[in-house]
User: Fold this.
Amino acid sequence: MSHYFTNDYVKSEEKVVKVKINDEDFTFVTDNGVFSKSGLDFGTRTLLENLKLEEIKGEVLDFGCGYGPIGIYVAKNTEAFVDMIDINKRSLELARKNALLNDASVNIFESNIYENVSKKYDFIITNPPIRVGKETLYQILFGARRYLNKAGELWLVVNKNQGAKTVARDLEKDYDVTIIKKNKGFYIIRAKNR
Assistant:
């Protein structure tokens, strides 16, 4: 798993996957060394299917974009301006290819957590890298507040087996938290900035 967060690549074997999200067709190029290379994972799918697209506008950050499904989906289905960040260079290369492939207007750049992020967003949307450990995960989730506008929203998906209840409870210290959906152990959490 560590290779998702480093740039020590396993051998490249690009693969094209076709995905349907809410009856909309997407084509993604994936590769070894990126999260969910065989296709859209269930957690990300559940997150995307439960976003309130009609409410998403302004500036959006796809945190830990991987090969790009979240940011590309949001860019294709809203008027929002979408930034996408990841620490993994292969993910960023794939996200750029996939934005072109799906005709999505997005801005993609490398960032270790928020170090290269210089503005505030109305929405930060993520399937966060749980396996980085709780300390780094909480830097991502609680650090998001500094990059959210007043009343901005952090949307995330976490599996029950990976601490979704604890994450939701802990986020309540700094956010107004709503569980939007529970689906096969995956929690879709909306955390509004106070």
In short: Residues 153 and 192 are 4 Å apart (CA to CA). The chain has a mean pLDDT of 91. The beta strands are 15-21, 24-30, 59-63, 81-86, 106-110, 121-126, 148-159, 175-183, 186-193. The first strand starts at residue 15 and ends at 21.
